[in-house]
Amino acid sequence: MDNARTKVILDRELGVESCRFEGTVRPFVMHFHTHYVFGLVEEGSRVMQYRGMVYHLGKKHVLLINPGDNHGCEQTGAVLTYSSLVIPVEVMGGWARSAGRDALPVFSPNVVPDEDMATCLRLLHRAIALGEEALHRKEIFGYLLDLVLSRYARDPSDSMAACRKEIEWACHYLETRYPEHILLDDLCAGSGLSKSTLLRGFVRTRGVTPHQSTLPTSALPQPEGCLSRACPPWMWRHRQASATRAISRAPSLPA
User: Fold this and answer.
1) Of 99, 88, 65, 117, whose CA–CA distance to 14 is shortest?
2) Mean pLDDT in residue range 179-198
3) Could you give all domains of the chain from N- to C-terminal order, each with its CATH number?
4) Which residue from 10, 95, 150, 208 has the fewest beta carbons nearer than 10 Å?
């Protein structure tokens, strides 16, 4: 049963979404996102499965969830207080480039007891909720990303780098044949990649699944976090993930 109180705020200046949950939250089956999520457990406990590992989450644990990484979780205590920051790959990519990185970062380990990051996340969520000055919010956000990039960013795995040409082939195939009915099996057969490797690689390089990449921006519905017509197309794209079974829940729900 889901008795959670949920608060979601879109910060257009930062290009991120601040989410807060209090109460009893239903379990979430294995799924993945097309964006990054930085989560913070403030009260309560959960058990999370992340790419074959099991983590027992408690107060002050920080979650670093990469795009394309399978994970699921369930609550173990009576009440949970959890906040998360949804960061689109475009935003993360911009900060990574400014830090001298050529590729999107992969964060590891994915659960850390980092008090510095926990403090930054609390301050940022508070600043967004109170509508504090954009400069102040950007300063906190910038410090947070500098912190996580310096401590936990890893270069993409050798397997991802090795299949870059295959991912580019799949992208080109979709771009040239998008009017056709293309199956995931077709992309796997042509690229020589498994379904999991293809999906993970596509999400990490393009920020969307193969299916989402073929959808025109005008066809993507505007979700709750983007009520204004000024909402940028990439926000529509990453929130559209909630309507597909490839990604089993919206970014406004806790990891």
Assistant:
1) 88
2) 78
3) 5-154 (2.60.120.810), 158-240 (no CATH)
4) 150
